[in-house]
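Q: Hi! First time asking for a complex rather than a single chain. Here are the components, and I think there are two in total. Is that enough to go on?
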Amino acid sequence: MIEVAVRHARGAFVLDAAFTAEGRVTALFGRSGSGKSTLVEVIAGLVRPQHGRVVVDGVTLLDTGAGVRVPVHRRQIGTVFQDARLMPHLSVRQNLLFGRFFARHRPGGPSLEAVADLLGIAALLERRPAGLSGGERQRVAIGRALLARPRLLLMDEPLSALDEGRKAEILPYVARLRDEARVPIVYVSHAVAEVARLADTVVVLEEGRMTACGPAAEILRRGGLFPGRETGEAGALLQLRVAAHDDVFGLTRLDGAPGRLTVPRLALPVGASVRVRVRARDVLVARETPRALSARNVLPGLVTAITPGDGPHARVEIACGDASLVAQVTRLAAHELALAPGLPVLAIVKSVAFDEETIGVVEI
Amino acid sequence: MPCGAWTPGHDPPSCRFCPPQRALPLFLTPDEWSALRLSLLVAGVATLASLLPGLAVAYLLARRDFRGRALVDGLVHLPLILPPVVTGYLLLLAFGRRGLFGAALAEIGIVFSFRWTGAALACAVMGFPLMVRAMRLSFEAVDRKLEQAAGTLGASPAAVFLVVTLPLALPGILAGAVLAFAKAMGEFGATITFVSNIPGETQTLPSAIYTLTQVPGGEAGALRLALISVALSMAALLASEWLARRARRRLGA
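A: Yes, that's all I need. Here is the structure of the assembled complex.
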């Protein structure tokens, strides 16, 4: 349970945000300059806000009203920065044990071996940070924060300095962290894909103000919240189970509330839970069953709402079974198909629309 | 070649205008040995004694904003621009037997004037700006983000200084110490003004060389000591270069 309320003016920029989050991963989402990093610095104790209150698991770390301000080094908040910030004069092992040394009087937390295994850095222990790749450095930084026995793990865009390949390399480790390490995480990001794969709660910031806060599935459906390029990235977040594999064609069948989805082969056992993001821009809407269609996923449903956007787009919400999909179509199409609430339609998604970015494993 | 004097009784070996005619005797005389030993002692003590104050002042100037910062900065750099004789004279006024602090210090048994300790004090004061400058630059070069990261990992400000800032600034700190040592080995003006030139007590290498050049027949000794000076300076420079390179390699830069 994390409770944060901050009012802080820095020149013309005013950060004014308050949220409460329960759950394992809380995402702070917003474009650069929205105040995410300042918020992180306030929580970590690196910035002293004019007004603020930070409570983590019942421990008040900051309360300007009551004159409480726990200094950085006593907050026990493991922080992972954009740049790994490893100590260049220490080996990887010494870096990992840096925080553990100062936390030696507090019991608990995973062992060095467990963390090194979890993050796949066991082979790097005797190396120096200068000899590591960006992705390796970031994994060491995560391990170092984790070994400091933190009450909260604060990750400030830990992947933003990495290229796509390295991101894909680290994201599964962060997901494992969430499922295995049992430390609440605040994850700052401006990438919908990361947030969708990791977060239970999403807090959206824009120009210093909080514009939305709620469960990830609910927030990620709303398109307008996200920065320009990412608009089409919004979409439904579905919980599904691996039902069967087809090794001849390299496909995997997923079953769940919206029905049955066929996606490219996943390296997961049957029965595993997955979280699938169906991007609004990947969903087609049809009124009649199309014939001879290449797309493998045709889900019958009912239109529940249509929201025209400012530009050429409109958002169509479709209830499929117990789940709900979002489709981004042109306003023209919505008009010509005479889409209206209550209308039965088919939501069509190509199997190839699903990739590593949209499917993640979750342990429930 | 003799100097060309034709006076009767002209003796080239003891004539101060004749260049040395025999091979340079390499062995030091007892007085020269004592000057060398004294120089090393004075420079070593001066460097060690100014190490902690130097670190403190360098850190303050690099990291803290306080009232009177410009004044401290100016005072530290003063010996660099003042004529050394003036610095020596000011030291005499302050730490001489009847000086401002000298009188009080003498009562508790600390005497600087005309002692080797005074030579060390003069050398420390003269080397201080060089030392502080190098240390300050290296403190400024330490990435403050690393210090912040150490803080979030539970290190108190004192621990951050000891385990992060200090080791990362080490190359510059060593360079500063070597510079101060080299400066102390060569200090002449302030030392001779403050504590004079007493063989065995305050006569360091430079004053010994100076003395030898002023007496007939001293050329060989002056040259020997000069060579030793050159060798020591070169060794100090090489040592500092080696230390800096080693530290850089350790940081993987």
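A: The mean pLDDT of chain B is 88. Let me know if you'd like any chain examined more closely.
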